[in-house]
Protein backbone atom coordinates (compact mmCIF):
# COMPACT_ATOMS: atom_id res chain seq x y z
CA UNK A 1 0.00 0.00 0.00
CA UNK A 2 1.22 3.51 -0.81
CA UNK A 3 0.48 6.40 1.54
CA UNK A 4 0.98 10.12 1.19
CA UNK A 5 0.76 13.03 3.60
CA UNK A 6 -2.58 14.80 3.29
CA UNK A 7 -1.40 18.19 1.91
CA UNK A 8 1.16 16.74 -0.52
CA UNK A 9 -0.77 17.50 -3.70
CA UNK A 10 -1.03 21.21 -2.89
CA UNK A 11 2.73 21.69 -3.15
CA UNK A 12 4.29 23.67 -6.03
CA UNK A 13 7.84 24.96 -5.68
CA UNK A 14 7.95 28.77 -5.40
CA UNK A 15 11.18 28.75 -7.48
CA UNK A 16 12.42 32.29 -8.16
CA UNK A 17 9.81 33.75 -5.79
CA UNK A 18 10.92 31.70 -2.80
CA UNK A 19 11.99 33.91 0.12
CA UNK A 20 14.12 31.14 1.66
CA UNK A 21 15.48 29.08 -1.20
CA UNK A 22 16.75 25.60 -0.43
CA UNK A 23 19.92 26.47 -2.40
CA UNK A 24 21.21 28.23 0.75
CA UNK A 25 22.30 27.30 4.22
CA UNK A 26 23.39 23.66 3.93
CA UNK A 27 25.43 21.22 1.92
CA UNK A 28 23.80 19.65 -1.11
CA UNK A 29 24.74 15.99 -1.54
CA UNK A 30 25.15 14.88 -5.16
CA UNK A 31 24.34 11.28 -6.07
CA UNK A 32 27.13 9.22 -7.69
CA UNK A 33 25.44 8.96 -11.08
CA UNK A 34 24.95 12.73 -11.44
CA UNK A 35 28.47 13.37 -10.09
CA UNK A 36 29.86 11.12 -12.87
CA UNK A 37 27.67 12.85 -15.46
CA UNK A 38 29.13 16.24 -14.47
CA UNK A 39 32.57 15.00 -15.54
CA UNK A 40 31.24 14.69 -19.11
CA UNK A 41 29.52 18.09 -19.41
CA UNK A 42 31.24 20.10 -22.20
CA UNK A 43 32.12 23.81 -22.41
CA UNK A 44 32.70 26.42 -19.73
CA UNK A 45 29.96 25.06 -17.48
CA UNK A 46 31.62 21.62 -17.70
CA UNK A 47 34.96 23.16 -16.70
CA UNK A 48 33.37 24.85 -13.70
CA UNK A 49 31.73 21.58 -12.67
CA UNK A 50 35.06 19.75 -12.95
CA UNK A 51 36.75 22.48 -10.95
CA UNK A 52 34.04 22.09 -8.28
CA UNK A 53 34.85 18.37 -8.08
CA UNK A 54 38.62 18.82 -7.65
CA UNK A 55 39.88 17.53 -4.32
CA UNK A 56 36.40 16.64 -3.06
CA UNK A 57 36.25 13.40 -1.14
CA UNK A 58 32.49 13.61 -0.88
CA UNK A 59 30.17 14.46 -3.80
CA UNK A 60 28.62 17.61 -2.42
CA UNK A 61 27.85 21.19 -3.49
CA UNK A 62 28.05 24.29 -1.29
CA UNK A 63 30.39 22.51 1.11
CA UNK A 64 30.39 24.51 4.34
CA UNK A 65 29.34 27.62 2.46
CA UNK A 66 26.24 29.72 2.43
CA UNK A 67 24.99 29.06 -1.07
CA UNK A 68 25.06 26.72 -4.03
CA UNK A 69 27.19 28.29 -6.80
CA UNK A 70 24.61 27.52 -9.45
CA UNK A 71 21.90 29.55 -7.76
CA UNK A 72 21.44 32.69 -9.87
CA UNK A 73 20.26 36.21 -9.14
CA UNK A 74 16.81 35.48 -10.59
CA UNK A 75 16.43 32.75 -7.96
CA UNK A 76 16.67 29.96 -10.54
CA UNK A 77 19.21 27.19 -11.01
CA UNK A 78 21.84 27.55 -13.73
CA UNK A 79 22.23 23.78 -14.14
CA UNK A 80 18.51 23.32 -14.62
CA UNK A 81 18.33 26.17 -17.12
CA UNK A 82 21.29 25.04 -19.22
CA UNK A 83 21.22 21.26 -18.88
CA UNK A 84 17.61 20.47 -17.99
CA UNK A 85 15.98 19.16 -14.82
CA UNK A 86 17.48 15.69 -15.22
CA UNK A 87 20.96 17.22 -14.72
CA UNK A 88 20.15 18.22 -11.15
CA UNK A 89 21.34 16.11 -8.24
CA UNK A 90 18.65 13.62 -7.25
CA UNK A 91 18.07 15.43 -3.97
CA UNK A 92 17.27 18.71 -5.84
CA UNK A 93 14.90 16.92 -8.24
CA UNK A 94 12.93 15.45 -5.36
CA UNK A 95 13.18 18.01 -2.60
CA UNK A 96 11.10 18.53 -0.48
CA UNK A 97 9.35 15.28 -1.38
CA UNK A 98 10.52 12.38 0.77
CA UNK A 99 9.69 8.73 0.13
CA UNK A 100 10.21 5.69 2.32
CA UNK A 101 9.64 2.10 1.29
CA UNK A 102 9.12 -0.12 4.34
CA UNK A 103 8.33 -3.24 2.32
CA UNK A 104 4.60 -3.82 2.94
CA UNK A 105 3.89 -0.10 2.42
CA UNK A 106 5.47 3.18 1.35
CA UNK A 107 5.08 6.63 2.91
CA UNK A 108 5.62 9.96 1.17
CA UNK A 109 5.68 13.39 2.80
CA UNK A 110 7.01 16.91 2.36
CA UNK A 111 9.99 18.03 4.39
CA UNK A 112 9.26 21.14 6.44
CA UNK A 113 12.75 22.52 5.89
CA UNK A 114 11.11 23.87 2.72
CA UNK A 115 9.35 27.10 3.65
CA UNK A 116 6.41 26.47 1.34
CA UNK A 117 5.88 22.94 2.66
CA UNK A 118 5.93 24.44 6.17
CA UNK A 119 3.34 27.03 5.09
CA UNK A 120 1.06 24.31 3.75
CA UNK A 121 1.48 22.34 6.95
CA UNK A 122 0.58 25.38 9.07
CA UNK A 123 -2.47 26.13 6.90
CA UNK A 124 -4.05 22.74 7.61
CA UNK A 125 -6.96 23.16 10.03
CA UNK A 126 -7.24 19.50 10.94
CA UNK A 127 -4.67 16.99 12.11
CA UNK A 128 -2.26 15.98 9.39
CA UNK A 129 -1.91 12.33 8.50
CA UNK A 130 -1.31 9.83 5.73
CA UNK A 131 -3.86 8.95 3.05
CA UNK A 132 -3.76 6.11 0.55
CA UNK A 133 -2.12 7.10 -2.73
CA UNK A 134 -2.59 5.91 -6.26
CA UNK A 135 1.09 6.41 -7.15
CA UNK A 136 3.91 4.05 -6.35
CA UNK A 137 7.18 5.87 -5.69
CA UNK A 138 10.17 3.81 -6.78
CA UNK A 139 12.43 3.68 -3.79
CA UNK A 140 14.88 1.18 -2.35
CA UNK A 141 13.59 -0.60 0.69
CA UNK A 142 14.44 1.23 3.92
CA UNK A 143 17.05 -0.60 5.99
CA UNK A 144 17.34 -4.35 6.29
CA UNK A 145 14.94 -5.29 9.09
CA UNK A 146 12.41 -7.83 7.83
CA UNK A 147 10.44 -8.29 11.06
CA UNK A 148 7.07 -7.28 9.64
CA UNK A 149 5.24 -8.17 12.86
CA UNK A 150 7.33 -5.61 14.70
CA UNK A 151 6.59 -3.08 11.96
CA UNK A 152 2.86 -3.62 12.53
CA UNK A 153 3.34 -3.00 16.25
CA UNK A 154 5.19 0.18 15.43
CA UNK A 155 2.28 1.31 13.27
CA UNK A 156 -0.11 0.72 16.18
CA UNK A 157 2.09 2.53 18.66
CA UNK A 158 2.56 5.53 16.35
CA UNK A 159 -1.21 5.86 16.11
CA UNK A 160 -1.46 5.67 19.89
CA UNK A 161 1.15 8.43 20.31
CA UNK A 162 -0.53 10.67 17.75
CA UNK A 163 -3.90 10.15 19.47
CA UNK A 164 -2.38 11.27 22.78
CA UNK A 165 -0.98 14.43 21.16
CA UNK A 166 -4.25 15.12 19.43
CA UNK A 167 -6.19 14.77 22.67
CA UNK A 168 -3.87 17.34 24.24
CA UNK A 169 -4.12 19.61 21.17
CA UNK A 170 -7.91 19.61 21.36
CA UNK A 171 -7.86 20.41 25.09
CA UNK A 172 -6.08 23.71 24.35
CA UNK A 173 -4.38 23.49 27.76
CA UNK A 174 -0.66 24.03 28.21
CA UNK A 175 -0.43 21.58 31.12
CA UNK A 176 -1.96 18.87 28.93
CA UNK A 177 0.42 19.70 26.09
CA UNK A 178 3.42 19.48 28.40
CA UNK A 179 2.18 16.22 29.88
CA UNK A 180 1.61 14.70 26.43
CA UNK A 181 5.16 15.61 25.38
CA UNK A 182 6.58 14.22 28.59
CA UNK A 183 4.69 11.04 27.79
CA UNK A 184 6.53 10.89 24.43
CA UNK A 185 9.81 10.88 26.32
CA UNK A 186 8.61 8.30 28.82
CA UNK A 187 7.25 6.10 26.05
CA UNK A 188 10.53 6.26 24.14
CA UNK A 189 12.50 5.26 27.22
CA UNK A 190 10.15 2.39 28.10
CA UNK A 191 9.92 1.22 24.49
CA UNK A 192 13.67 0.98 24.22
CA UNK A 193 13.84 -1.07 27.41
CA UNK A 194 10.98 -3.27 26.17
CA UNK A 195 13.01 -4.02 23.03
CA UNK A 196 16.04 -4.97 25.14
CA UNK A 197 13.79 -7.40 27.07
CA UNK A 198 12.14 -8.50 23.81
CA UNK A 199 8.81 -7.63 25.39
CA UNK A 200 6.93 -6.68 22.21
CA UNK A 201 3.60 -6.83 24.04
CA UNK A 202 4.55 -3.35 25.25
CA UNK A 203 3.71 -1.95 21.82
CA UNK A 204 0.23 -3.37 21.63
CA UNK A 205 -2.42 -0.84 22.05
CA UNK A 206 -4.04 -1.47 25.39
CA UNK A 207 -5.49 0.73 28.06
CA UNK A 208 -2.26 2.56 28.80
CA UNK A 209 -2.85 5.55 31.09
CA UNK A 210 -0.60 8.09 29.43
CA UNK A 211 -1.16 10.79 32.03
CA UNK A 212 -0.18 8.45 34.80
CA UNK A 213 2.95 7.31 32.89
CA UNK A 214 4.04 10.87 32.20
CA UNK A 215 3.37 12.39 35.60
CA UNK A 216 4.18 9.58 38.04
CA UNK A 217 7.32 9.57 40.18
CA UNK A 218 9.05 7.97 37.19
CA UNK A 219 8.87 11.16 35.11
CA UNK A 220 12.12 11.83 33.23
CA UNK A 221 12.02 15.59 32.91
CA UNK A 222 9.96 18.15 34.74
CA UNK A 223 9.02 20.07 31.62
CA UNK A 224 9.07 19.45 27.88
CA UNK A 225 7.04 22.49 26.82
CA UNK A 226 9.04 24.57 27.22
CA UNK A 227 12.42 22.99 27.88
CA UNK A 228 14.07 24.24 31.08
CA UNK A 229 16.11 27.43 30.53
CA UNK A 230 19.28 25.56 31.47
CA UNK A 231 18.79 23.05 28.65
CA UNK A 232 18.03 25.75 26.08
CA UNK A 233 21.28 27.47 27.00
CA UNK A 234 23.18 24.18 26.73
CA UNK A 235 21.78 23.67 23.22
CA UNK A 236 22.91 27.14 22.20
CA UNK A 237 26.37 26.67 23.65
CA UNK A 238 26.64 23.14 22.28
CA UNK A 239 26.67 24.07 18.62
CA UNK A 240 23.27 25.31 17.52
CA UNK A 241 24.65 28.84 17.36
CA UNK A 242 28.02 29.92 16.04
CA UNK A 243 29.39 32.87 14.08
CA UNK A 244 29.40 30.98 10.76
CA UNK A 245 25.60 31.21 10.84
CA UNK A 246 25.91 34.82 9.76
CA UNK A 247 27.01 33.62 6.33
CA UNK A 248 25.16 30.30 6.20
CA UNK A 249 21.74 31.38 7.42
CA UNK A 250 21.44 35.15 8.04
CA UNK A 251 17.80 34.94 9.14
CA UNK A 252 18.57 32.28 11.76
CA UNK A 253 21.60 34.29 12.84
CA UNK A 254 19.29 37.24 13.49
CA UNK A 255 16.89 35.03 15.48
CA UNK A 256 19.76 33.72 17.58
CA UNK A 257 20.78 37.33 18.18
CA UNK A 258 17.36 37.90 19.78
CA UNK A 259 18.00 35.06 22.21
CA UNK A 260 21.50 36.31 22.98
CA UNK A 261 20.19 39.80 23.70
CA UNK A 262 16.93 39.01 25.50
CA UNK A 263 17.54 35.86 27.51
CA UNK A 264 21.13 34.65 27.52
CA UNK A 265 22.55 37.48 29.70
CA UNK A 266 20.06 36.78 32.52
CA UNK A 267 20.63 34.41 35.42
CA UNK A 268 19.06 31.02 34.92
CA UNK A 269 16.21 31.79 37.29
CA UNK A 270 15.50 35.16 35.70
CA UNK A 271 15.69 33.62 32.21
CA UNK A 272 13.19 30.94 33.18
CA UNK A 273 10.85 33.58 34.55
CA UNK A 274 11.12 35.95 31.61
CA UNK A 275 10.70 33.22 29.02
CA UNK A 276 7.68 31.89 30.95
CA UNK A 277 6.05 35.33 30.83
CA UNK A 278 6.78 35.79 27.13
CA UNK A 279 5.41 32.36 26.38
CA UNK A 280 2.20 33.13 28.24
CA UNK A 281 1.74 36.30 26.17
CA UNK A 282 2.54 34.50 22.92
CA UNK A 283 0.04 31.71 23.52
CA UNK A 284 -2.72 34.11 24.52
CA UNK A 285 -2.07 36.25 21.42
CA UNK A 286 -1.94 33.19 19.10
CA UNK A 287 -4.82 30.91 20.11
CA UNK A 288 -3.98 28.17 17.59
CA UNK A 289 -0.25 28.06 18.41
CA UNK A 290 -0.38 25.36 21.08
CA UNK A 291 -2.18 22.84 18.91
CA UNK A 292 0.15 23.70 16.01
CA UNK A 293 3.17 22.88 18.15
CA UNK A 294 1.67 19.52 19.12
CA UNK A 295 0.77 18.80 15.51
CA UNK A 296 4.32 19.65 14.57
CA UNK A 297 5.41 16.85 16.89
CA UNK A 298 2.79 14.57 15.30
CA UNK A 299 4.36 15.40 11.95
CA UNK A 300 7.80 14.49 13.31
CA UNK A 301 6.38 11.10 14.29
CA UNK A 302 4.96 10.69 10.78
CA UNK A 303 8.40 11.35 9.33
CA UNK A 304 10.84 9.69 11.71
CA UNK A 305 9.20 7.34 14.16
CA UNK A 306 9.80 4.35 11.88
CA UNK A 307 13.54 5.02 11.93
CA UNK A 308 13.40 2.82 15.02
CA UNK A 309 12.55 -0.09 12.71
CA UNK A 310 16.20 0.08 11.74
CA UNK A 311 18.05 1.41 14.79
CA UNK A 312 15.70 0.76 17.77
CA UNK A 313 16.76 4.18 19.13
CA UNK A 314 13.38 5.20 20.51
CA UNK A 315 14.73 7.78 22.93
CA UNK A 316 16.81 9.45 20.22
CA UNK A 317 13.88 9.91 17.84
CA UNK A 318 11.49 11.06 20.57
CA UNK A 319 14.03 13.60 21.76
CA UNK A 320 14.74 14.85 18.27
CA UNK A 321 11.20 16.18 17.80
CA UNK A 322 11.31 17.83 21.23
CA UNK A 323 14.51 19.72 20.37
CA UNK A 324 13.11 21.04 17.09
CA UNK A 325 9.78 21.96 18.64
CA UNK A 326 11.40 23.87 21.50
CA UNK A 327 13.80 25.80 19.28
CA UNK A 328 10.99 26.75 16.90
CA UNK A 329 8.79 27.86 19.78
CA UNK A 330 11.61 29.90 21.32
CA UNK A 331 12.23 31.81 18.09
CA UNK A 332 8.52 32.34 17.41
CA UNK A 333 8.16 33.88 20.87
CA UNK A 334 11.24 36.10 20.55
CA UNK A 335 10.32 37.29 17.07
CA UNK A 336 6.76 38.05 18.20
CA UNK A 337 8.20 40.08 21.08
CA UNK A 338 10.44 41.97 18.65
CA UNK A 339 7.45 42.85 16.49
CA UNK A 340 5.69 44.51 19.45
CA UNK A 341 2.01 43.70 19.62
CA UNK A 342 1.73 42.32 16.10
CA UNK A 343 0.94 38.71 15.55
CA UNK A 344 3.47 36.48 13.88
CA UNK A 345 2.10 35.65 10.44
CA UNK A 346 2.01 32.25 8.87
CA UNK A 347 4.85 32.88 6.44
CA UNK A 348 7.22 34.02 9.14
CA UNK A 349 6.34 31.05 11.34
CA UNK A 350 7.02 28.80 8.33
CA UNK A 351 10.34 30.55 7.80
CA UNK A 352 11.32 29.86 11.41
CA UNK A 353 10.40 26.17 11.03
CA UNK A 354 12.39 25.86 7.82
CA UNK A 355 15.62 27.45 9.12
CA UNK A 356 15.49 25.51 12.40
CA UNK A 357 15.00 22.23 10.57
CA UNK A 358 17.86 22.93 8.19
CA UNK A 359 20.16 23.70 11.07
CA UNK A 360 19.12 21.23 13.76
CA UNK A 361 17.81 18.35 11.71
CA UNK A 362 19.65 18.11 8.42
CA UNK A 363 23.07 18.92 9.67
CA UNK A 364 24.40 15.68 11.09
CA UNK A 365 27.16 17.15 13.25
CA UNK A 366 24.76 19.58 14.92
CA UNK A 367 21.94 17.07 15.22
CA UNK A 368 24.20 14.57 16.97
CA UNK A 369 25.56 17.17 19.38
CA UNK A 370 22.13 18.55 20.29
CA UNK A 371 20.74 15.04 20.78
CA UNK A 372 23.65 14.04 23.00
CA UNK A 373 23.29 17.18 25.14
CA UNK A 374 19.55 16.59 25.59
CA UNK A 375 19.94 12.89 26.33
CA UNK A 376 22.55 13.65 28.98
CA UNK A 377 20.31 16.30 30.48
CA UNK A 378 17.32 13.97 30.61
CA UNK A 379 18.94 10.74 31.74
CA UNK A 380 22.01 11.64 33.78
CA UNK A 381 20.52 13.78 36.47
S1 LIG B 1 12.56 25.98 -0.34
FE1 LIG B 1 10.79 24.89 -1.24
S2 LIG B 1 9.60 26.45 -2.35
FE2 LIG B 1 11.65 27.31 -1.91
S3 LIG B 1 12.89 26.89 -3.76
FE3 LIG B 1 13.23 25.17 -2.33
S4 LIG B 1 11.65 23.61 -2.86
FE4 LIG B 1 11.03 25.55 -3.83
- Main sheet overview: 4 strands, mixed
State the shape. Answer: globular
Q: What structural category arises from helix and sheet content?
A: mainly alpha
Number of domains: 2
Which cofactors or ions or other ligands sit in this model?
iron/sulfur cluster
**Weakly predicted, low-confidence segments:** none
Percent of residues in helices comes to 55-70%
Radius of gyration: 21 Å
Instruction: Give the helix tally.
Output: 17
Count of distinct strands? 6
Note the beta-strand portion.
5-15%
- What do the pLDDT scores average to? 92
In short:
By secondary structure, the chain is mainly α.
Write up what this structure looks like.
A hairpin with a 4-residue loop joins strand 4 (97-101) and strand 5 (106-110). With 381 residues, this protein is mainly alpha-helical. It is globular and about 70 Å long. Helix 6 (148-171) runs antiparallel to helix 7 (174-196). The protein has 17 helices and six strands. The strands form two sheets. It has a four-stranded mixed β-sheet with strand order 4-5-1-6, with no helix packed on it. A two-stranded antiparallel ribbon has the order 2-3. The protein folds into two domains: 23-94, no CATH class; 160-379, no CATH class. Residues 13-15, 18, 20-22, 95-96, 114-116 line the site of iron/sulfur cluster.
Amino acid sequence: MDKVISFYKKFRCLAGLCPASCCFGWNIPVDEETWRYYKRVPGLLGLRLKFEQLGRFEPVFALGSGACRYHQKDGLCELQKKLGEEALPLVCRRYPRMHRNYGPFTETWLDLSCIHAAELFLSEEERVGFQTWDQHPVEERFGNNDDEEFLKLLQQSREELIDVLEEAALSGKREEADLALRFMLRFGYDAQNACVRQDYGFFERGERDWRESASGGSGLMEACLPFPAELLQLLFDGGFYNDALKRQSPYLYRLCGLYLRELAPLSEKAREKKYGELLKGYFSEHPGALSRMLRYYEYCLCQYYFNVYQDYSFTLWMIRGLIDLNLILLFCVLRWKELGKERLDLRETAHIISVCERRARHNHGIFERLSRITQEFVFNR
